[in-house]
Amino acid sequence: MKFEQYNISPLIKKSLEELDFKKPTDIQYKAIPSILKGDDVLGIAQTGTGKTAAFAIPVLHLLLRRSHHNTRKQVKCLVMVPTRELALQIAKVFKEIGKHTGLKILGLVGGVEQAPQIKKLEQGVDILIATPGRMFDLVSQKYIDLSRVDVLVLDEADHMLDLGFIKDIQDVMRYLPPRHQTLFFSATIDDRIKDLAYSVVRNPIRIQISPKDPVSKNVNHSVAHMSMDDKRFFLERFIKEYPEQKILVFVRTKVRAERVFAAMQRVNLPTLTMHGDKEQADRLKVMSEFRNGKVKVLIATDVSARGIDIPGVDFVVNYDLPDLPENYVHRVGRTGRGVSKGRAVSFCSPEEQPLLDAIQQYIGKPVSVMQIDKEDYLETITFTEDTPNDNWQLLLDEAEKEEAQRRKKKKK
Ligand code: ADP
Ligand code: MG
Predict the structure, then answer these.
(1) Cβ–Cβ contacts within 10 Å for residue 277, how many?
(2) pLDDT digits over 314-339, tens only?
(3) Is ligand 1 within 6 A of the CB of residue 24?
(4) Which CATH number is associated with domain 3-208?
(5) In the chain, at which end, N or C, are there fewer CB atoms within 10 A of the end residue's CB?
(6) 394 confidence band (pLDDT: 50, 70, 90)
(7) Residue located nearest, by CA, to atom 24 of ligand 1
(8) Domain residue spans in the chain?
(9) CA-nearest residue, atom 2 of ligand 1
(10) Nearest-CA neighbor of 233 among 98, 392, 89?
(11) Is 53 in the pocket of ligand 1 (CB under 6 A)?
């Protein structure tokens, strides 16, 4: 079935055509009719399968149908998300799909001036996409009225319902009218989170696409074993081997991000960093430089792991393995989006083996191993323009010893 045949406003069909969205993805096909009917929906589908439009299309249609009632400039749909980048990205999708609808859409995030946001709110906003902090600020200052919200959307729902955000969700419920529609969307979910979702709404319709393997089939992912100290040489080699590719590198902490950045700088490889300590203006600049390919390598913490849709990310490198197994799925899911294919490789040091075990258990199968033979390993750590570390000497010694033994054997 094509979007043309859908019973949705022609104003929406027009923009879908402009976006070249011809037919719905699986999750869109299954979720859109239920949402249009007014059901509460828990939609679970792998990364990159078009979950944003799965809620944006029907929400825009519903609001358009009811928009003549919205004379008092109150928010009709609230979308809550965990990060600023994601809020702005989803706002962009709503704006693109809602381009011809006349509905007012605002992405509301912290770290920037309030005044322009307040001005927009005063002009009236139909669809608000927000991270909790700034939103609660403006709610308490009475710039945002949530008492007429018809639809609440929680994207990255498992994260939003988990520790850290659950209280925000419970708080927001108090501002909403008793009758409203709730939509949860997520790529990963477990029983505990499912229970939490069911505690928020009575009977959500659960729509789940390919639950067995949470990693999208468009992503070819593997693990390479190496020592912690050698990771930077492997990254250097990797970047140099694929100079034309867009590479997203995940590290465990902000400090590690800056360190890896410095290590790449020493060998003349320009990279960008992205983490929670950066000013909002910097964060925007970094994302745009990476998006448009001005700099091809981005080193990021898990703030960029969820939901971010950057077209054309060819490789994801897990420079450090994630502490939470579900973040593995979110990280590798930054590549292979839509119909494109992607690759991911994880650098696993012996200390990180327990994290790898947890990931394999979570995804229900082993991650294939990228074999690096001794020669290749040696070549990689000698190939660097940087000063190699002690490991290098140790390995050389070892290799020499082996060589000597082989020679001895031959003589005998
Ligand atoms: P998810 O939230 O499931 O990870 P997104 O909503 O970010 O995925 O969508 C991933 C990509 O797929 C986006 O670049 C989006 O433009 C594209 N996309 C979504 N729906 C369609 C469609 N029906 N046809 C073509 N491309 C689509
Ligand atoms: Mg998403």
Answers:
(1) 13
(2) 999 999 999 999 999 999 999 999 88
(3) yes
(4) 3.40.50.300
(5) C
(6) low
(7) 21
(8) 3-208, 219-395
(9) 51
(10) 392
(11) yes
